[in-house]
Amino acid sequence: MTRSRRHVLVVGNGMAGARLAEEIRHRDPNAERFAVTVVGEEPHAAYNRVLLSTVVAGGLGPRDTRLKPDGWWAARHIEVVTGARVLDVDAATQTATVVAAGAECVLTWDELVLATGSTSFVPPTHGLYAGTPGPGTPLADGVVAFRTVDDCARIVEAAESASTAVVLGGGLLGLEAARGLLARGVHVTVVHPQDFPMDRQLDADGGAVLSRVVRGIGARLVLGRLVVERQAPVDGQSAHVVLDDGTRLAADLVVVATGVRPRTDLAVATGLDVDRGIVVDDRLATSLPHVHAIGECAEHRGEVAGLVQPGWDQARVLADVLTGGDPNATYEGTSVLTRLKAPDIDLASMGTVDVDVHDAGHEVLAFTDPSRGRYAKLVLRQDRLVGAILLGIGDAAGALTQLYDTGAVVPRDRLSLMLGRAITRSGAAEAVNLAEMPGTAVICRCNTVTKSAIVGAFRAGAVTVGAVAEATRATTGCGSCKGAVDGLCSWLHSAEPAPGRTTSTTSSTTSSTPEPVPAAAALTEGAA
Amino acid sequence: MTTDVTSPPRPLGRDAPSEQAGVATHCAYCGLQCAMTLTGASAADLTVSPRRFPTNRGGLCQKGWTSAELLRTPGRLTTPLVRRDGQLAPASWDEALDVVSDAIVRTQTAYGRDAVAVFGGGGLTNEKAYQLGKFARVALRTSQIDYNGRWCMSSAAAAGIRCFGLDRGLPFPVTDIGSAHAVLLLGANPAETMPPFLTHLVRAADAGGLMVADPRLTPTAAKALDGGGLHLQLRPGTDAALALGMLHLAVTEGYADRGFIAERTSGFDDVWAVAAQWLPERAERVTGVAVTTMRAAVSGLARARDTERGAYVLSARGTEQHASGTDTVTAFIALALALGLPGNPGTGFGTITGQGNGQGGREHGQKADQLPGYRKIDDPEARAHVASVWGVDPADLPGPGRSAFELLSALGTDGGPHVLMVHGSNPVVSAPDARVVTERLAALDLLVVSDFVLSETAAVADVVLPVLQWAEEEGTLTNLEGRVLRRRKALDAPSECRSELEVWSELARRIGCSTDFPTDPRVVFDELRRASAGGPADYSAVTWERLDAGESLHWPCSAERPQGTPRLFLDAFATPDGLARFVAVDHAGPVEADDTAYPLVATTGRVLQHYQSGAQTRLVAELAAAAGDMFVHVHPDTAEAAGLADGDRADVVSRRGRTRAVVRVDDDMRPDVVFLPFHWGGDARANSLTHAALDPTSRMPEFKACAVRLEAVA
After folding, report:
1. CA-nearest residue of chain B to A344?
2. What Pfam families does the annotation carry (chain B) (predicted)?
């Protein structure tokens, strides 16, 4: 180790903290300028929290969520201390006291990065905690928050024997948990205090459609209700929860997904400015020099992130700032886009969505099809997309998320914009009206044979597909146009019963409008 | 004679000359090498008719049908030309070759052997590709040889070698695809580039299983949609993100073949670590392809696999021609491996080779780092073997040289070549950032171009040598499935035209090389067989007689595998441990980001009527008329924003140059993308725009994405 190497201490081995270590190493691949230590509270190597709902659903095992293969961090000279807590930080001496495996040690740092993330918020409802409700108190048997890979393992284990589960909270995480438990054959009820699920990302109409969709995949959904009590199983009576209207719901398992809170206790103790999260500026700096914060614990321009992308963007910027890779790097915020990850619920929400259709300051497009579980709402301002909800209309999501991200002017054709291009595309080739097709239309692309050329060949005596092929080469490339040529021959047979004769005007075939020939009929007639 | 491609086939696969009256050969153009019969004794009355063969099933496209026109074009070169007083003037062969050989000797004496360079092409026969490599290494003793295949197949080749240990475009016969119910095409538009290939996609299309990833709604993508299949309309240059997002879905939704991954591959954990971060929702934002569409594509492949109805993933230039092309193909191979497709019958991964001999041309030593038989030039064993066939000391063989663009951009510079010989290529039109390449060509002491038409490159040469074209020569080519085919002579060339084999033999003699350079293609092929023996692309048991008897022989074909190898990797992959490799790669994206000054992404490609730089097909009146002039496809809103309407002339402008084109408004374009075909030169040259950033592994340039703007032309 060279003397001049600076030590970056990252507190938190979650997706933001681990990403920062990786980004720093990307800029200093041989660890010549920076030593990096990541201290993580969980006993596991860094993993991808976003994948946990897939683990609950059975698509992945817990090990599949590792961010990197075993040995990756060590091979890149990133020191990772798992199962460790930072007890306190002294910003004046630039030290931190860390306890790991029961032993305390003091680490010095040149740059400190808090990436402490968030914790699940578990309401102080009677019966959810094993003791006095509050942070630090373990949850009761049969009650699991949904935050860590260990939580995930507990849910999976409980689902083995549970026949009923109640999910508290109908937000993104709650619905993903419900979807995963359904996949494991558990009867699931989602209890949500608002009138519709995912109320932070949807409007009322979209929420109503989503409610139908959630019920349609087999979950029970109880809206506008709170759980006031949870009863552990006693004397052969199964566990259950009680709602504020007195309803009892069987609940072998209770999954709590009622939101998260930024973890700021260490920051507060260190004397940093903390509002909802640790307050950072556009360079991810806190109120003390050489102390930075990223991820869900940080509050940037009043926003506390709840998704991974802002944390990754912040990690990239902070790595540039710390290493000097881009000394002018700033973090300007991340446009938030929420996608529900469930194969049978296709939901995207972005930007401002709670705008009335008749709002004067916006152009709002809406499409509602509750029976088929479809809902689309696009909010435009000055021809640019500022918000959208897409439910069950996944085809359009790709184009719309890009329009939202880039702020580009949206296409004028608003219908295809909203519903996706495939819906407006004309149907299969068989449906094309051969009669109305202009003479210049190319029938055989492989050989650039137009309708006029085929009509000409027909009139010159080539009245079968084979003869047309001989005369014009149509159908001799990929063969795809054989049906069209056949149909054209049939139409000409019916329109001009005496093939080979000269017609009065050459334009008659393109301007006259006889009945279109259905392709199936055309094939039969053509073969006769 | 019926030309109905869908009637019951006669026995296929024979490629014997005597099947019907006329000469049985294969098309002048692309890598599908459609079988055709030439009848007639002279160029004036030669006619082309399609011939039944597994690859084209009796079909031909308009290029093939009209290929005889090239034999009688007034543009045909019939005499050597030497530049005098600034003008190309007719000269005798002796005069022309003297100019060339004098320049070679003078230049190498003054600057060293590497001051003379050679640039080949993927359209040359196997014999010429082989002999060109030998001529460079043994007669010129230069390391400076590369070819236009670097701009064609190199990314797919590099990824194939990296992951499978071997590159053969399709490691299975093309007819295998014909029985598949699911085919995912990546940046491939065979409906225009090799139309008869579509006959092999009919089943997939009819089953709703044709899936096309392309920024444009190409005729191929339209065919997919018409059958109920998919169009993945990604933003140009985001292919790797699409691959990783789909790989993520394959794993999380249970489509991965865990048994195959465990038994027949290595490195999955490393790849998963990358793909795990490519949540499909993230890939959607980058690519613009909806998660539902990705999911449908992955599940479509898996369903066809599970029901044993055939599932293939095929890449082509759209996904490969990027500065990150090797990694992009590597990512798609990882997807195919995760699904357990390669190395199993009825499923697989392949790349669709473009140029006529794009496969054979990349195996026998035209590449800067390569020796015949797909050997590596820095491998001592390979050098010893090939040197023994050539009768030279291995130590005298040069090492690896510059790749295509690096070679061309070094021309006329200190330490760069001062004499260049071009064979079967037209880099003035086809090179990336072609304005720079054209400047470098002008800085040469001598540019020698062998061609049969006055291409844009020949037009700026100092010496132009008139050579034979397809129907005038004997030889072999290797098609897109690794099958060796015979090209047969139907008529004599104009009297002053000579084969390149004769050119090299004569030049070797003139510069004092004692090694024999045979001029009979059959003799050269026999030497190629010996040189390739024991190499990855082993042709040793492929004989002229067996080919003439119509045998279907796919390399490797050797004493151990006398019947050839139609299907590779069924038992083991060609890696040292026999396992296919998952290689961890990430999405990089286009080198040049769009910005307010250049707000659109330009992507380039082909039209049905033209082949490559268009030097040949533009001379065929029927094709030129059908294709029309240079155009640019633009979304109507984008056109209007630039003050343009359908039919207007516009300049497409990048940081490197401008291209003039007629606007064709197209509702199906992405608003952020414009498309330009690259078949024209001069003001209409699409490659005036393109970016020459190179792939770190394959040295493929960034042809398929650059930032541009549209300007109305007053």
Report:
1. B292
2. Molybdop_Fe4S4, Molybdopterin, Molydop_binding
